[in-house]
Amino acid sequence: MARSTAVRVPSTPAVATALHDAVLDWYALSARDLAWRRPTATPWGVLVSELMLQQTPVARVEPVWREWMRRWPGPADLAAEPPGEAVRAWGRLGYPRRALRLHACAVAVVDSYDGVVPADGDRLRDLPGVGAYTAAAVAAFAHGRRTVVLDTNVRRVLARLRGGAERPAGTGPSRSEHDTAARLLPADPPTAARWSVALMELGAVVCTARAPRCGDCPVSDHCAWLALGAPPGPREPATARTQAYAGNDRQCRGRLLAVLRETDGPVTEQVLHRAWDEPVQRSRSLAGLLADGLVEPVGHDAFALPGTAH
Known about the structure:
The chain has helices spanning 13-30, 43-52, 58-71, 75-79, 83-90, 97-113, 121-125, 132-143, 152-161, 175-184, 189-205, 224-227, 249-261, 269-275, 279-291, and strands spanning 267-268, 296-298, 302-304. By secondary structure, it is an all-alpha fold. The chain is globular.
């Protein structure tokens, strides 16, 4: 008879308390000192950080976040400026449509909530660019609400800790994952919020995807994946080969956008021609920037960041 590889992970109040204590103690000693996690961070600052951190490493986000918060410490400050200024300040963070979403978010907070970032998850999800994860993260990290926060790092930690799997199944959280996270959530709202960010940090720096440091994990004794011998999970499906950045449309768009960011006022088509000399690709990339609302035409032969032509 084949030996079963299933591991029964006890789920009792005592085990949950042990997990909470171990992870929270580890976080208190080992957490990275990130500006948006400090007690002085405002709900607006937390919201800005969450949108900036989408698909972008912390090291690239932090200096831009600091400058952004210096210039626009509250949503009303950003809402008072044209959206093109948000695109300009976004710099080279990538995926610049996020800058437009943040500007739209600031306008919505001012118009609908008197400039105060809401704490309720449903109201947060109504804001431009705010999905289920971001709404939960802002509710927890900015307002201390007791809510399940499931990002990629948390999903991976829980898949290993409770499910015995190397990685979570599927590209998005399942109902089962949500239920597992909810069962582990501490009852006290501030503690629950700290638990959520601690799990996220654990996944980011210890229980990583490719090289987990299990010897440094504060809950390795409770880990179902380790109890199974840390078996590799199923191979991930092959993905299409990523096109090299050099010379592709994304680089072309970036070059054109950089010229506009660095210029105060409209830029003629001739200047954009000098930024990228291949005419078909330049025309295609410029059309994409116009369609995305990142650039607007000025007259017949000039362009500017949205709302900045003067």
